[in-house]
Q: What sequence folds into this?
């Protein structure tokens, strides 16, 4: 599997996520986009991006990506609830996907600036073993 195929596998697993009432679709960006409109998830390579360990068979590696989860602005309570919900949805979708994705960690919520406007976000670190 190539890095592009692993990224596409993860993006496909996250496709179709929604948040809020009424449900609002979440855009999944398989790489850093030039324009961002929350709610969205942005997939970027993590560090290390790929590595091998003794527990993997020959020719296999761990592929690592960060899913940056960004929610739209609103009341503090609504934004916090949306972020909690979307982070949970990202984790469940990844763990249910083909490819044996694992959730490695989730960062604390933090403001992310988009066009000089702060949005609440959190980073979900995901990894999966694939044969190269």
A:
């Amino acid at each position: 599997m190539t890095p592009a195929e692993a990224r596409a596998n993860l993006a496909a697993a996250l496709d179709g996520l929604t948040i809020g009432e009424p449900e609002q679709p979440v855009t999944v960006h398989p790489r850093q986009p030039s324009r961002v409109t929350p709610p969205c998830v942005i997939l970027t390579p993590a560090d290390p991006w790929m590595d091998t360990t003794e527990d993997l068979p020959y020719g296999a590696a761990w592929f690592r990506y960060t899913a940056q989860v960004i929610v739209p602005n609103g009341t503090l309570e609504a934004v916090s609830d949306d972020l909690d919900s979307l982070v949970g949805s990202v984790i469940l979708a990844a763990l249910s996907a083909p490819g044996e994705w694992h959730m490695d960690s989730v960062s604390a919520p933090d403001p992310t600036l988009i066009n000089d406007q702060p949005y609440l976000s959190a980073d979900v670190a995901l990894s999966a073993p694939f044969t190269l």
Summary: The chain has a mean pLDDT of 93. The radius of gyration is 15 Å.
